[in-house]
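Troubleshooting log. The previous structure file for this entry was overwritten by mistake, so regenerating from the original sequence record. Sequence copied from the archived sheet and checked twice against the printout by T.R.
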Amino acid sequence: LPGLHVFAIAFALEVSVGKTNTMMALNNSDVLLPCTFTTCMGFQDLVFTWYFNSTELIYHGKIKNKATEPTLVTRNPRVDFAGSTTKKDNNISILLNNVEFSDAGKYTCHVKNPKEKNAQHNATIFLTVVHKMVETDNTVTLIIVGVVGGLIGLLILFMLIKKVVLFIIKKTQDGKKECLVSSSGNDNTENGLAGSKAEQKAPPKA
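Regenerated output below.
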């Protein structure tokens, strides 16, 4: 039984895209989509594929073993391999060239390892493409302004509300201090109108 337990632990293919699975790219720029895999059992004739929005295959590669770099099976003309599998981290990242607004979406890095009884695992990156110039498609600009501007707007609104609330609290506290100071004095004749107001407010408190 202990042998089976160890075997179960070792039998684990994992795919990772890093600490965060969201990325932002500037329109017309090149963007690196990171992906690495780990396996306790090693790999043989490993297959990896990158998909756009779950269905469109944009890169397909095969890796014979740890001593070799991947061989290309098929790819989108705008996608280049940007990793290395002979190094420690089994990097199967890709470079997406000249991103457009239509490239925004979900990118899935999928790995299948025949050496682990065809174990499969994947990880996903959500890519957002932001506008460079104002003269982009109006709908897209509105969506971007709506998303990005909305978040900034909420943040500004929150900051303004916070300032207003703090201002009101400060004024209220200051007002209380003024009332306490002016009502504590027996002779308020020097304060004029403020003194008479304080005297009027004093009885309800007593």
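The CA atoms of residues 7 and 173 lie 68 Å apart. Archived copy saved in two places this time.
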